[in-house]
Structure formats: structure tokens, C-alpha cells
Design brief:
The protein is built from three helices and four strands; from the N terminus they run αβαββαβ. It is an alpha+beta fold and 92 residues long. The structure holds copper (II) ion. The site of copper (II) ion has 4 residues, from helix 2.
Length: 92
């Protein structure tokens, strides 16, 4: 077996674990009350290292956040929204 093949096999073995590191949570953010609020919340969450995707919605007063759970966690996400003036709690 060549070194290249060993590397390829190692990469294939690791890839599923990398994919499994992405978690998605929905945060309840009751203080969002105008169209600017979701923009502010999204900016605050996007600044958190490890966050890959944020979708804040005024109608449901919630934000869906995808993040790498080896780089951040739900506590850091709720802290980030609270620091921006929008305390949040996890829906799921
Ligand atoms: Cu607002």
C-alpha cells in the first residue's frame, strides 16, 4: 500500500466525524420586534467562532443557528445574543 492510499483511506475514515460536528439549534428570541432586530442578532451570532449559518426570523422571533460543536456551544450562542441586547433560550 502506498503512502498516498493510506492518506486517502485515513481521510475517508475521518470525513463523517467532521460532518457530524455540525449542530443546528433554534433559539427563541422574544425581544426581536422590528425588521432591524434579526439583522442585529444575525451579526452577533455570525461573529461567534464556529458558527457557519444563521437565519433569524422576526415573525417567529427565533433564530436557527448551525455551528461546529468542537469550536463553540449553545451557551456561547445565547451569550452572544444577550450581549447584543437579545436574551435567548434554546427551543430544541
Ligand atoms: Cu428592532
Amino acid at each position: 500500500m502506498t503512502t498516498r492510499n493510506v492518506l486517502l483511506i485515513a481521510l475517508m475514515a475521518v470525513t463523517p466525524y467532521v460532518a457530524a460536528d455540525t449542530q443546528t439549534v433554534t433559539l427563541n428570541i422574544p425581544k426581536m420586534d422590528c425588521p432591524i432586530c434579526p439583522v442585529t442578532v444575525e451579526a452577533a451570532l455570525n461573529k461567534v467562532d464556529g458558527v457557519s449559518e444563521v437565519d433569524a426570523d422576526l415573525d417567529t422571533r427565533s433564530a436557527t443557528v448551525s455551528f461546529d460543536d468542537s469550536r463553540t456551544n449553545v451557551d456561547e450562542l445565547t451569550t452572544a445574543t444577550a450581549n447584543a441586547g437579545y436574551p435567548s433560550t434554546v427551543i430544541q
